[in-house]
UniProtKB/TrEMBL annotation:
Region Disordered: start-end pairs: 135-157
Name of the protein this chain belongs to: Bifunctional nuclease family protein
UniProt-listed Pfam families: BFN_dom (PF02577)
GO function terms (MF aspect): nuclease activity
Annotated organism of origin: Mycetocola manganoxydans
Length: 176
Protein backbone atom coordinates (compact mmCIF):
# COMPACT_ATOMS: atom_id res chain seq x y z
CA UNK A 1 0.00 0.00 0.00
CA UNK A 2 1.10 3.53 -0.83
CA UNK A 3 -0.14 6.50 1.19
CA UNK A 4 -1.52 9.24 -1.05
CA UNK A 5 -2.97 12.71 -0.73
CA UNK A 6 -5.57 14.56 -2.75
CA UNK A 7 -3.86 16.63 -5.41
CA UNK A 8 -7.12 18.08 -6.61
CA UNK A 9 -10.39 17.64 -8.40
CA UNK A 10 -10.37 18.21 -12.15
CA UNK A 11 -12.60 17.89 -15.18
CA UNK A 12 -11.74 15.72 -18.16
CA UNK A 13 -12.28 16.86 -21.74
CA UNK A 14 -15.96 15.86 -21.52
CA UNK A 15 -16.53 17.84 -18.34
CA UNK A 16 -16.61 14.74 -16.11
CA UNK A 17 -15.07 15.24 -12.66
CA UNK A 18 -12.16 13.17 -11.45
CA UNK A 19 -10.15 13.10 -8.26
CA UNK A 20 -6.37 13.06 -8.52
CA UNK A 21 -4.35 11.18 -5.90
CA UNK A 22 -0.57 11.23 -5.59
CA UNK A 23 1.84 9.42 -3.24
CA UNK A 24 2.69 11.70 -0.33
CA UNK A 25 6.41 11.11 -0.59
CA UNK A 26 6.61 11.75 -4.35
CA UNK A 27 8.64 14.65 -5.67
CA UNK A 28 6.43 17.38 -7.23
CA UNK A 29 6.24 16.99 -11.00
CA UNK A 30 7.56 13.42 -10.89
CA UNK A 31 5.93 10.04 -10.39
CA UNK A 32 2.43 8.72 -10.82
CA UNK A 33 -0.93 10.35 -10.23
CA UNK A 34 -4.04 8.21 -9.86
CA UNK A 35 -7.13 9.64 -11.58
CA UNK A 36 -10.50 8.28 -10.43
CA UNK A 37 -13.65 9.46 -12.16
CA UNK A 38 -16.35 10.46 -9.67
CA UNK A 39 -19.80 11.97 -9.68
CA UNK A 40 -20.42 15.71 -9.66
CA UNK A 41 -21.95 15.65 -6.17
CA UNK A 42 -19.00 13.74 -4.75
CA UNK A 43 -16.56 16.12 -6.47
CA UNK A 44 -18.35 19.08 -4.90
CA UNK A 45 -18.33 17.39 -1.50
CA UNK A 46 -14.60 16.64 -1.71
CA UNK A 47 -13.77 20.18 -2.87
CA UNK A 48 -15.73 21.71 -0.01
CA UNK A 49 -13.85 19.57 2.53
CA UNK A 50 -10.40 20.03 0.97
CA UNK A 51 -10.84 23.80 0.84
CA UNK A 52 -12.01 23.86 4.45
CA UNK A 53 -15.41 25.28 3.57
CA UNK A 54 -18.84 24.28 4.82
CA UNK A 55 -22.03 23.83 2.85
CA UNK A 56 -25.03 25.89 4.00
CA UNK A 57 -26.71 22.59 4.96
CA UNK A 58 -24.92 19.36 5.86
CA UNK A 59 -24.08 17.18 2.87
CA UNK A 60 -24.34 13.38 3.03
CA UNK A 61 -20.66 13.05 3.93
CA UNK A 62 -21.06 15.62 6.70
CA UNK A 63 -23.97 13.57 8.05
CA UNK A 64 -21.83 10.40 7.92
CA UNK A 65 -19.09 12.14 9.90
CA UNK A 66 -21.61 13.35 12.48
CA UNK A 67 -23.11 9.86 12.78
CA UNK A 68 -19.68 8.34 13.35
CA UNK A 69 -18.81 10.96 15.98
CA UNK A 70 -22.16 10.46 17.72
CA UNK A 71 -21.57 6.69 17.84
CA UNK A 72 -17.98 7.21 19.06
CA UNK A 73 -16.46 5.75 15.92
CA UNK A 74 -13.51 7.20 14.06
CA UNK A 75 -12.09 6.66 10.61
CA UNK A 76 -8.70 4.98 10.83
CA UNK A 77 -7.97 4.92 7.12
CA UNK A 78 -9.31 4.67 3.60
CA UNK A 79 -7.94 2.15 1.13
CA UNK A 80 -8.38 1.99 -2.63
CA UNK A 81 -8.04 -1.78 -2.77
CA UNK A 82 -8.50 -2.86 -6.37
CA UNK A 83 -9.64 -2.02 -9.86
CA UNK A 84 -11.81 -4.47 -11.77
CA UNK A 85 -12.98 -3.79 -15.34
CA UNK A 86 -12.31 -0.09 -14.84
CA UNK A 87 -14.22 0.13 -11.56
CA UNK A 88 -12.30 1.13 -8.46
CA UNK A 89 -13.10 -0.45 -5.08
CA UNK A 90 -12.39 0.97 -1.66
CA UNK A 91 -12.67 0.15 2.02
CA UNK A 92 -13.32 2.42 4.96
CA UNK A 93 -11.69 1.22 8.21
CA UNK A 94 -13.46 2.41 11.34
CA UNK A 95 -12.40 2.17 14.96
CA UNK A 96 -15.45 1.59 17.17
CA UNK A 97 -16.12 0.60 20.78
CA UNK A 98 -16.63 -2.95 19.52
CA UNK A 99 -13.35 -2.98 17.61
CA UNK A 100 -12.23 -2.38 14.06
CA UNK A 101 -14.83 -2.55 11.30
CA UNK A 102 -13.98 -2.55 7.59
CA UNK A 103 -16.72 -1.40 5.23
CA UNK A 104 -16.93 -1.73 1.45
CA UNK A 105 -17.22 1.75 0.01
CA UNK A 106 -17.10 3.69 -3.24
CA UNK A 107 -13.75 5.48 -3.53
CA UNK A 108 -15.46 8.83 -3.98
CA UNK A 109 -17.39 8.45 -0.72
CA UNK A 110 -14.34 7.11 1.12
CA UNK A 111 -12.22 10.05 -0.05
CA UNK A 112 -14.94 12.58 0.83
CA UNK A 113 -15.11 11.12 4.35
CA UNK A 114 -11.31 11.03 4.66
CA UNK A 115 -11.15 14.70 3.64
CA UNK A 116 -13.53 15.55 6.50
CA UNK A 117 -11.90 13.38 9.15
CA UNK A 118 -8.25 13.82 8.15
CA UNK A 119 -7.95 10.06 7.80
CA UNK A 120 -5.07 8.68 5.76
CA UNK A 121 -5.74 7.50 2.21
CA UNK A 122 -3.92 4.45 0.88
CA UNK A 123 -3.79 2.87 -2.58
CA UNK A 124 -2.89 -0.72 -3.37
CA UNK A 125 0.47 -0.82 -5.20
CA UNK A 126 -1.07 -2.83 -8.05
CA UNK A 127 -3.86 -0.28 -8.53
CA UNK A 128 -1.36 2.58 -8.72
CA UNK A 129 0.76 0.65 -11.21
CA UNK A 130 -2.23 -0.31 -13.36
CA UNK A 131 -4.19 2.95 -13.39
CA UNK A 132 -1.61 5.58 -12.40
CA UNK A 133 -0.40 8.03 -15.01
CA UNK A 134 2.85 9.97 -15.19
CA UNK A 135 2.63 13.44 -13.73
CA UNK A 136 3.71 16.18 -16.09
CA UNK A 137 7.18 17.27 -15.09
CA UNK A 138 9.10 20.49 -15.49
CA UNK A 139 12.69 21.20 -14.59
CA UNK A 140 14.20 24.60 -13.83
CA UNK A 141 17.11 25.27 -16.17
CA UNK A 142 20.62 25.87 -14.83
CA UNK A 143 20.17 29.66 -14.96
CA UNK A 144 17.25 29.39 -12.53
CA UNK A 145 14.96 31.30 -14.89
CA UNK A 146 12.33 28.60 -14.89
CA UNK A 147 12.79 27.33 -18.43
CA UNK A 148 10.62 24.27 -18.88
CA UNK A 149 11.97 21.04 -20.25
CA UNK A 150 10.79 17.49 -19.92
CA UNK A 151 12.80 15.14 -17.74
CA UNK A 152 13.29 12.87 -20.73
CA UNK A 153 11.77 12.20 -24.16
CA UNK A 154 9.94 9.22 -22.64
CA UNK A 155 8.31 11.56 -20.13
CA UNK A 156 7.06 13.87 -22.91
CA UNK A 157 5.59 10.89 -24.71
CA UNK A 158 3.85 9.60 -21.56
CA UNK A 159 2.32 13.03 -20.93
CA UNK A 160 1.11 13.18 -24.54
CA UNK A 161 -0.29 9.65 -24.18
CA UNK A 162 -2.14 10.69 -21.03
CA UNK A 163 -3.61 13.74 -22.75
CA UNK A 164 -4.84 11.49 -25.60
CA UNK A 165 -6.19 9.09 -22.99
CA UNK A 166 -8.19 11.87 -21.32
CA UNK A 167 -9.57 12.99 -24.68
CA UNK A 168 -10.70 9.49 -25.62
CA UNK A 169 -11.62 7.82 -22.33
CA UNK A 170 -15.20 7.10 -21.42
CA UNK A 171 -15.77 8.10 -17.76
CA UNK A 172 -18.12 5.14 -17.33
CA UNK A 173 -15.05 2.91 -17.71
CA UNK A 174 -13.85 4.20 -14.33
CA UNK A 175 -17.01 4.52 -12.28
CA UNK A 176 -16.05 5.03 -8.62
Amino acid sequence: MVQVHIVGVALDSRGQPLILLKPIDAVPGVGLVLPIWIGAQEATSILIAVEGNEAPRPLSHDLMKTLMETLHASVERVEITRIDDGTFYAELTLHTREGVIVLDCRPSDAIAIAARTEASIWVNDGVLEEAGIAEESTVTDASGTGGETADAPDEEERVADFRRFLDEVDPEDFQG
